[in-house]
Specification:
With about 210 residues, this protein is of the alpha+beta class. The protein is about 35% helix and about 20% strand. The protein has two domains: about 80 residues, no CATH class; about 110 residues, no CATH class. The model has no long low-confidence stretch (mean pLDDT about 95).
Length: about 210
């Protein structure tokens, strides 16, 4: 598991890479609003962050005193570093099908697929209620609960849950647009999928 120091170092590297680009260009490339003061307005799941270049200080738009998790800051910065011409292709792929993802497949499964099945596999109705709270939009799919999320403007993610029963255990799929490999790394994709699942898990009544 990565340490906080690792994330701080990753943020430092990303900030340095982004420091020469102005806020207007970053907003245009990333699909974000930019205020007159040059602040990027960044919706992320059920929160909205403000990020001010060139240092990229993050604050919560609704609760400025609430810290922005360093993992989420790094993911957002890595997204901004991605290929601005990589628009969604609407060609969906499992994580293992993304180039370079095979090394992280085990971590992806433990971080996202297994918790999704454990937390919601016997209760797909709760997923249907909670997913919209973090930006999930239902779509017609093969599972008992199917939602598409847009954690980043150009990175759609689909979650498909098959409920368990007396005969079969629950199953789940998390799909990515094939263009995602030009925008964020397979490691970041695994973290992103896990963040979506755990953000929903935090909203499930105990």
């Amino acid at each position: 598991m990565a340490r906080v120091d690792d994330y701080e170092n990753a943020k430092k590297i990303a900030v340095e890479a982004l420091s020469k680009r102005d806020a207007t260009a970053l907003g245009s490339d990333g699909g974000y609003e930019v205020t007159e003061g040059g602040v990027l307005v960044i919706p992320f799941l059920n929160r909205v962050f403000h990020a001010l270049p060139p240092d990229f200080t993050f604050t919560d738009a609704d609760e400025p005193e609430k810290p922005a998790p360093i993992q989420e800051q790094v993911l957002i910065l890595h997204y901004l570093l991605g290929d601005p011409l990589a628009d969604p292709s609407e060609d969906w792929a499992a994580y293992r099908e993304i180039p370079g993802a095979s090394f992280y497949t085990s971590a992806f499964t433990k971080r996202a697929i297994d918790p999704l099945k454990k937390i919601f596999g016997e209760d797909p109705e709760s997923l249907k209620k909670i997913a919209p709270l973090v930006g999930g939009v239902p779509f017609a799919g093969p599972g008992d609960a199917c939602f598409e999320f847009s954690p980043f403007p150009r990175v759609p993610v689909r979650i498909i849950l098959y409920a368990g029963d007396e005969e079969f255990p629950p199953e789940a799929s998390i799909l990515f647009d094939r263009s995602v490999g030009r925008i964020i790394s397979p490691e970041d994709m695994a973290w992103l999928a896990g963040m979506i699942v755990y953000r929903m898990a935090a909203l499930k009544p105990r």
